[in-house]
Amino acid sequence: MQQCAEGVRKPDVSLFETAAHRCGASLRNGGWMVGDNPIKDIIGGRTAGLSTMWVNHGAQPDPSTSAGSCRN
I want to staple 12 with a disulfide (CB 3.0 to 4.6 A). Which of 8, 29, 34, 44 is the partner? Predict the structure, then answer.
């Protein structure tokens, strides 16, 4: 899904709603947002009621929003 084609951009909740609808799902049922942008993906996903996982490519996280890390 291309954000600009939809007329909205993340972190706008309506983009998450549209994506869920196209997958035959609803945000009411929860779900996950996995992304690499702390604002657009993580805050946007949380605002939409989703659980989130941040893929960190070396950026420093905000300690007030960090829940730890997952490592292999």
Answer: 8
pLDDT of residue 64: 64
pLDDT in tens, 10-51: 888 999 898 899 999 999 988 999 999 988 999 999 999 999
Structural contact between residues 27 and 48, judged by C-beta atoms closer than 8 angstroms: yes
Q: Where are the domains of the chain?
A: 3-54
- Whether the CA torsion 11, 15, 16, 19 is positive or negative: it is negative
C-alpha pair distances (Å), 15 with each of 6, 59, 68: 8, 25, 27
pTM (predicted TM-score) = 0.69
